[in-house]
Amino acid sequence: MPSSRSNRLKSHRLLFPAACLYAAIALPLSMATILAGWSWTPGLAGSHHGHEMIFGFALAVIAGYTLGPQPARWLFPLFGLWLAARLGYALAPGFWLSQLLSPTFALLLAWRVVPRFNAAKKWRNRMLVPLMLALCGLPLLWLLLGITPLPGATVLLHTGVVLLLLLMTFMSGRLIAPAVAGTLEKRGITQEARVQPRIEAALILMLGAAALAVLLPLPSWLSGPLLLAAGVLILVRTLRWRLWLCPERPDLLGLAVGTLWLGIGAGGFGIALMLNQGPSALLHLITVGALGTLTIGVMLRLHYHATRRQPPPVGLLLITLGAVALAALPRLAAGPSPWDAPTLLWAAAGAWSLAYAVTASALLFHR
């Protein structure tokens, strides 16, 4: 009789390509809905666009990375729920069932993932428990918008961005630091700055407090300086890894570029809040530059390690991560009134779609 382990599937092999294909398709549809007046995907316009970026795409990548091997009888229904949530929300965001599917997926994901982090001994590792609960709980708060006196959609989206910022900051450090140390040790170089626990602890506290301040919402003179200080610390931590000593590891260099996007985006977000300016353009340094670079870097790194026991090809990384940069910069240049610059928005959407279409192709066909 086959063991239960033999019936387990690696979650990333299903969820990573699906997330990439959704990212490649959803953004051009969003632009067409807003700029060309298409009416059949209303769930990709306005604040719904941010909803799908965080609760649709990002949660799918998080699920693929954190779930690990799962029984097929559990993984396929969960994936079907995610897919139904995306289709339902894009086509009919106001329908009660469409609104219910995303929170259901998020809560089931938390139920499956959170116990895996409970065994951690250090508080810095255990913080993944409340962080995952918070991220997976935001879709439920979104469901309750208009029913109870909760913060508005913009506040929830900004809170989601800060929580993603914290998750990406934590996970990128845990990926990059040991890999850089191992690479340098093979060449006889000692890497002193690895996880950098003091900086990591400060980042967890700062970004956690900033997320709470944005959610409540508290005055921007509280959240703004916290985000600015966190951005500076992220940049300092990245420089201390000395990644310029690892030119033979383009996958690590790509992840480092993602952390630079994180630091610049966090600092820019903080400055915008301190100046009481709309942060929408600067937020895309995090949601496009950092999220795009880090998700693609992690997905390709995990895929090529699992299938070929080697880093992703240099050319593939240059195309995908370069396209992400070409998506982030035009969106930043479009400024706080992006609909006045449709050419820049279409350029950003095209570059983003290219990055994820190429990534999806690599995940599906390069074995």
- Low-pLDDT stretches are none
Shape call: globular
For the secondary structure, the number of strands is: 2
Helicity range of the residues? over 70%
- Spatial strand sequence of the major β-sheet: 1-2
Count the domains. 2
Question: How far apart are the first and last residues' alpha carbons, in Å?
Answer: 29 Å
Order of helices and strands: EHHEHHHHHHHHHHH
Written description of the protein model:
The chain crosses the membrane at residues 48-67, 74-91, 97-115, 127-147, 153-177, 198-216, 222-240, 252-275, 281-302, 314-333, 345-365. This protein is 76% helix and 2% strand. With 367 residues, the protein is an all-alpha fold. It has two domains: 10-150, no CATH class; 151-367, no CATH class. Helix 2 (47-66) runs parallel beside helix 11 (280-308) and helix 11 packs parallel to helix 13.
Notable characteristics:
globular, 2 strands, transmembrane helix, 367 residues, transmembrane, mainly alpha, NnrS, membrane, 2% strand, two-stranded antiparallel sheet
